[in-house]
Design goal:
Layout (H helix, E strand, L loop, with lengths): L2 E6 L3 E11 L3 H19 L8 E7 L5 E9 L11 E4 L3 E9 L5 H14 L8 E5 L12 E7 L2
Antiparallel strand pairs: 1-6, 2-4, 2-5, 3-4, 3-7, 6-8, 7-8
């Protein structure tokens, strides 16, 4: 597994939040969120310019309940509404790895990144990002690519 430290530049993104998300309802929350985002982008004529992401903003102590931000980089700002707003992708230093395979096995990449942080005495900000580099609708599950990003202080 390739792990690197990199400095990321921000992109504007259309986004939505979901709170109290559990692993059991994660897929439904993500599907519903991206549906809202795609509708807003389509209605307002913006163009997608990057990989969709899910930011894990916080969780309870045992990582079973999360607040998440779902976003998609776009070429221009759109008007916000009650469910959709403008945000930006992460801007700064991060530890990054690309996971290949099922979303169900992402935990192994998260574990490797946490070990890397500890071994290199790096401190995470506590927010984690998954950037979905391939589309699960037309990519075999074992070939899905997800860039996992751990912002660091």
């Amino acid at each position: 597994m390739n792990i690197e430290v990199s400095t990321l530049s921000p992109q504007i993104a259309v986004a939505t939040k979901a709170t109290g998300v559990t692993m059991e309802n994660m897929t439904a929350a993500i599907d519903t969120g991206y549906e809202k985002l795609m509708q807003a982008v389509s209605e307002q004529g913006a163009q997608l310019i990057g990989a969709p992401y899910c930011a894990y903003l916080n969780s309870n102590e045992d990582f079973t309940v999360f607040d998440i931000e779902l976003g998609i980089p776009v070429n221009t700002a759109i008007s916000a509404n009650d469910e959709v707003y403008m945000s930006q992708t992460y801007d700064g230093k991060a530890v990054i790895s690309t996971h290949q395979g099922s979303y169900a096995t992402l935990e192994s990449t998260y574990g490797a990144l946490m070990v890397y942080l500890q071994e290199n005495q790096l401190e995470s900000t506590g927010v984690y990002y998954d950037y979905y580099l391939s589309n699960p609708l037309d990519t075999p599950e074992d070939q899905l690519l997800t860039q996992v990003v751990f912002p660091i202080n």
